[in-house]
Amino acid sequence: TISALMAIKKLYELGEIKRVLILVPRILVNQWFFEIIRSGFGVPRRIERDTIDSLVRENFPEGIYLASMDLVKIDRYFGKVREVDWDMIIIDEAHRLGAKKKEATQRYRQIGQKLIQSFPDRHVLLLSATPHRGDPYDYISRLRLVDPYLYPPGRLDNMDFYTKTTN
To answer: What whole-number distance in Å separates Cα of residue 93 and Cα of residue 129?
Structure first.
């Protein structure tokens, strides 16, 4: 959380960003809310079922926005969030954007592919204390969200690749 907020601050100072979307699991929304305030950014705008329509009417003014990734993945909310010209997107607990060989999760399809991969010029920060859960396809699929030019997952499933991507 602290590293992400430092990155936001630096990119604001450089004039790189004006509108930031932070997506987190529902249980972490309040923690992030208070950390953003404590870090001196002021009060972030919360994207909720009862606030999203007013944010759309206001054209999502510049600032920091905070939402539950499970709310944003729902089609009727996702479309409204996807239309915003985000300068930066931060995903906390990014390992929840899972992609198994047979089928990607709705979070991965909506947030990963349609919100992150579809707009390659955005700054993206994926946070996770559990980046690799034992499934190489799942892990590499997440890496491909920030670098779509990585080879297909099967070709990267080797010790040399894992050694280069840790830490």
So the answer is: 7
